[in-house]
C-alpha cells in the first residue's frame, strides 16, 4: 500500500514578500485616494488651505531669487568711477590707467572716453534735442576701476577712493557698489524672513493636516474598533491615515506650485514692459527643479508627520488601562 505523499508548502522568498508588501501598500494608497476623491468639497478646501499656506513662502522665495539674479548682473558695475579733469585727454587718461593697473589692490581699469560716454548718454533717449544744441562735448574722461576681491569692502573702497582723489588728474570719484552691497544685505534679510515664515506656515500646515486626520479617525472610529477586535496591528490601522496625510501634503504642494507659477505668468507681461524701458529683456524665473522638489518633499513630510501624530494619539487613547 502506497503511503500518501505530502508536499511541503514552499515558503515565500524575499522577492515574494516584497511583492506582497508593495501590493498591500499600493492598494492602501489607491483606496485612500479614492476615499478622498469621494468627498471633493472637504478635500478641496483642505488642499486649498495647504496650498495657499505653502505658496506664500514659495512666492517670496521666488521674488528674492529673481532679485538676486537681477543684482547678479549689477555685480559687473565698477566699484569706483573716477572722473578726471576736463583738460585730461584720452592719451593722458590711458597713461594714468596703465599706472593704476600696476597697483596690487586694483584688478582692472577701463577707460571711458568722452565720445563713448556721450554716445552712451545719447542712447538713453529723451535728450536728443538738448545734445544737438551742444557745440562741444561737456563730458570728462572716466576711469572705471574694479578692485581685487580682497579689497572690495566698503572701508577698503573708501580708502582707495581717497587715494585716487589725491591724483592731480582726478576731479571727483563716485563709489558705485555701496548701494549694491546694501541691496544684497536687504536680500539676505528677506531670505531669513522667508525661512522663518516658511517654518511658521509649515507648523500651521502640520496642525491643519493633523486636525483633518483626527476628524477622519473619529468618523471611522467604529471601523478601527472592529479592526482592533480581529487582531489588526497598529501599523495596519495606521497605514491608510498615513497615506491620507501624504496625499493631502502632495496635493497641497502641487497646488502651491501651481499658484506660484500662475502668479509668475500674470506678472511677466508688466515686468517685461518695465524691463523694456531700461533696455533689458529680464524674465522672471519660477521654482526650479530643486525648489519644486523641496516644496513637494516638505509638504508630503508635513502630511506624514501630522497624520502620524494624530493616529498615534488616538491609538494610545484607545489602549485599555
TrEMBL record:
The keyword Metal-binding does not apply. NCBIfam families: FtsX_Gneg. Residues 79-167 form the FtsX extracellular domain. Forms a membrane-associated complex with FtsE. GO terms for cellular component: cell division site; plasma membrane. Part of the ABC transporter FtsEX involved in cellular division. It comes from the Bacteria. The chain crosses the membrane at residues 45-64, 189-210, 246-267, 287-311. It comes from Chromatium okenii. This is Cell division protein FtsX. GO terms for biological process: cell division. It is found in: Cell inner membrane. Residues 197-313 form the ABC3 transporter permease C-terminal domain. The lineage of its organism: Bacteria, Pseudomonadati, Pseudomonadota, Gammaproteobacteria, Chromatiales. It is a multi-pass membrane protein. Belongs to the ABC-4 integral membrane protein family. FtsX subfamily. Keywords: Cell cycle, Cell division, Cell inner membrane, Cell membrane, Membrane, Transmembrane, Transmembrane helix.
